[in-house]
Design brief:
This protein is an all-alpha fold. Helix content is 85%, strand content 0%. It has helices at residues 3-28, 34-60. The longest helix has 27 residues, at 34-60. The model has no long low-confidence stretch (mean pLDDT 93).
């Protein structure tokens, strides 16, 4: 497996994870305890930041 293929696979997995967390926050957020909601939103932001970095790295690989 090439580095590009591996990065694409990881990016794809992280994209799915990000979407799942966002859906959870948007659909269940009102029912969560405030501290759980805050942690989940923080995780959503962290995953989003990681996804942006992975995308940048993958675009630089030739």
């Amino acid at each position: 497996m090439t580095m590009q293929t591996e990065l694409n696979t990881i990016t794809s997995t992280m994209t799915e994870l990000s979407a799942r967390i966002t859906t959870l926050v948007e659909t269940e957020g009102n029912e969560m305890p405030p501290d759980v909601y805050s942690e989940l939103v923080a995780a959503e932001r962290t995953v989003g930041a990681l996804l942006r970095r992975l995308t940048r790295v993958a675009s630089r690989i030739v």
